[in-house]
Design a protein that fits this description.
The chain is an all-alpha fold. It has helices at 2-14, 18-39, 43-66, 72-99, 104-127, 141-157, 167-181, 200-215, 217-255; strands at residues 135-137, 185-187.
Length: 262
């Protein structure tokens, strides 16, 4: 009986959780489709596919945590799919859409984005055991890819169809690459409960934001992800000052000598 139970336990450990990995596979499908669409010149389709991949990437982790189906296989599979959907796919999209006219500077920017994104994923996998879940260490690779996709859609919304050539795109790619491998803190939103209770003022803001998103979804998404990318340095500065303030309070308390008892 004990041998049978042990064999069953080993089989269950070797098993693969289907539901979260299905969402991860959908993420991979969207990333691969984005590459095909970018090669064929359908840059808007590629950008939308990358955005949908980001949605699936956010869902698979939450589903795994809710269903308690987190596994090492799932973490490794998710990282490999993220490297394709949010590293190779947006790098290829950016190169074919805006970086190719810049020659060596352009393809080096695309290569740097893919390399930094892969390094970001590798660092994240090695730090999950001792880094807090409230803040990310560096810009998450899905956010960097979402920024590229949102820029493509935003310029298309402004009437810029087809390929483009502007030095700001090159600068943006280099900045995104640097932010991914930096130690700048970004809020993870892992503790945000959408279905939980919220204050009345927050509910009103959510409703207004939803209405604005329905009216101008491309514009709202662009400035929303841009605000998140820019928020990193300010978050790091705020956390640094709060840490200094806490250390100062502890030092002041340690320096205070108790009054002599009478």
């Amino acid at each position: 009986m004990k041998r049978k139970n042990r064999s069953k336990g080993k089989r269950s450990q070797r098993g693969i959780y289907i539901l979260p990995n299905l969402f991860t596979s959908a993420n991979l499908f969207c990333g691969f489709y984005a590459m095909i669409a970018a090669i064929q010149g359908f840059f808007v389709r590629a950008a939308v596919a990358i955005m949908i991949a980001a949605v699936f990437d956010g869902l698979d982790g939450r589903i795994a945590r809710v269903t308690r189906s987190v596994s090492m296989f799932g973490l490794g599979y998710d990282s490999l799919c993220d490297a394709i959907s949010f590293g190779v796919a947006p790098g290829l999209l950016a190169y074919l859409w805006a970086l190719e006219p810049f020659g060596r500077l352009g393809w080096l920017a695309a290569l740097l984005f893919v390399a930094c994104g892969t390094l970001r994923l590798a660092r994240f996998n090695t730090q999950t055991s001792y880094v807090g879940s409230t803040y990310f260490n560096g810009l998450p690779i899905p956010a960097a890819a979402f920024m590229i996709a949102a820029t493509v859609l935003f310029l298309h919304h402004l009437g810029k169809t087809g390929t483009t050539k502007h030095v700001t795109i090159v600068i943006m790619i280099y900045v995104l690459s640097f932010m991914m491998v930096s130690t700048v803190k970004y809020y993870s939103f892992k503790h945000v409960e959408v279905l939980g209770k919220m204050k009345f003022n927050v509910l009103v803001m959510v409703i207004l934001f939803s209405i604005l998103t329905l009216v101008e979804p491309i514009v709202i998404l662009f400035f929303l992800i841009l605000g998140y990318v820019v928020s990193g340095p300010f978050t790091s500065l705020w956390l640094h000052r709060r840490k200094q303030h806490a250390e100062g309070v502890v030092t002041d308390k340690a320096d205070v000598t108790p009054q002599e008892s009478r």
